[in-house]
Write a structure and sequence with these properties.
Elements: E1 2-7, H1 13-23, E2 27-31, E3 51-53, H2 56-65, E4 71-73, H3 79-86, E5 91-97, H4 100-110, H5 116-127, H6 130-138, E6 141-145, H7 150-159, H8 172-184, E7 195-200, E8 203-209, H9 225-228, H10 230-233, H11 249-257, H12 259-262, E9 266-272, H13 276-285, E10 289-294, H14 299-308, E11 312-315, E12 322-326
Parallel strand pairs: 1-4, 1-5, 2-3, 2-4, 5-6, 6-12, 9-10, 10-11
Antiparallel strand pairs: 7-8, 7-9
Helix pairs in contact: 4-5, 13-14
């Protein structure tokens, strides 16, 4: 894999690179003539550079032939060059930032004459740059490096399991749970967005999301009194479900699939643990395995029913993405 690392001024990017190259055994690559040395937020010239390249194409060709190695590059800031790599299945972009206080402490060691105001100016110059904002938007991981302790930094980076193959190509669980999350985006239920997908032999049989019945007024338009006025109906999570007009995501998926299309070896993925009512229906149609992401108020009751029925039941925990605060 190739990890592209970009950071703001004084964010401790050099410490991260040292950990990658010295402890995590990544090979550091360098692309010449992208930006001047003074403009690079992560200075790597005092580190051992494994291989240098004169242009993005030669770098890309090298990585394509050697993508199974753990490779690192820190100067892909030119957006046109970055786009070339984002298209490839072996590339992952990570950005690094830090608090102004710690940026000032790091920079003061290198430039004693710099004031806090100067550090803020340099930090803002990059963070408010439209090109860098675009880079941040495309990053799979955004590290907030709020520690000066390199051991703490190393421990946290190691826990992220950055070389996990699933970060480059999602496992089937991740793949189908994304389908469930996408289905949930169609939900108009005022209480909770839930999405579900039924799979057989790694092929989608049916999808569903929660909402009022076909032809009825949508929940977000006032179609379900329980969801829209929980205080009046006294309906907290998992309570008074019989007064709710919204079909659950699992119910919609089961209705869409039909009994004959489910059969054996079908897996139901749901972004929320099924309630007890849906659990009974899932058991009855012959689903073999249930995988969920988020917990619900009655997980233990649903689990008991699934276990008694001999249905595999487990929670899916994906690799960590998004913003990670290290402190």
């Amino acid at each position: 894999m190739l990890i592209g690392l970009e950071g703001t001024f004084g964010s401790g990017g050099e410490d991260v690179v040292r950990i990658f190259t010295q402890k995590l055994k990544f090979k550091l690559l360098y692309l010449e003539s992208i930006v001047s040395c003074d403009d690079e937020s992560i200075q790597v010239h005092d580190l051992t550079i494994f291989k240098r390249f004169q242009d993005p194409e030669s770098l890309l060709n090298y990585v394509t032939a050697n993508w199974r190695e753990n490779l690192l590059i820190c100067n892909l800031r030119a957006l046109s060059n970055l786009e070339m790599f984002l298209k490839r299945p072996f590339f992952m972009l990570i950005t690094i930032d830090s608090s102004i206080n710690l940026k000032f402490k790091r920079v003061s060691n290198k430039y004693p004459s710099w004031t806090l105001e100067k550090v803020c100016e340099e930090s803002d110059k990059l963070q408010l740059n439209p090109k860098y904002c675009s880079i941040q938007d495309k990053a799979k991981l955004k590290l907030i490096n709020n520690t000066l302790d390199t051991q703490i930094l190393y421990d946290n980076l190691q826990k992220l399991d950055l070389t996990n193959p699933e970060r480059l190509r999602p496992h089937w669980d991740s793949y189908f749970m994304h389908f469930a999350d996408l289905a949930a985006m169609r939900s108009n239920c005022m209480k909770r967005r839930v999405g579900c997908v039924i799979v057989k032999d790694n092929r989608v049989v049916a999808t569903g999301y929660n909402g009022t019945p076909r032809g009825a007024k949508n929940c977000n338009e006032g179609g379900c009194n329980r969801c829209n006025h929980p205080a009046e109906s006294g309906s907290s999570s998992g309570v008074a479900l019989s007064t709710c007009l919204c079909l659950h995501a699992e119910e919609n998926a089961l209705l869409e699939a039909g009994r004959r299309r489910v059969e054996e070896n079908s897996i139901l993925y749901c972004n929320t643990c099924p309630c007890l009512t849906c659990t009974i229906k899932i058991v009855q149609v012959g689903i073999t395995e249930v995988v969920y992401s988020q917990s619900y108020s009655m997980d233990e009751f649903s689990e008991k029913v699934f276990r008694e029925a001999g249905i595999k039941f487990r929670q899916f925990i994906p690799p960590t993405y998004g913003t990670i605060v290290i402190q």
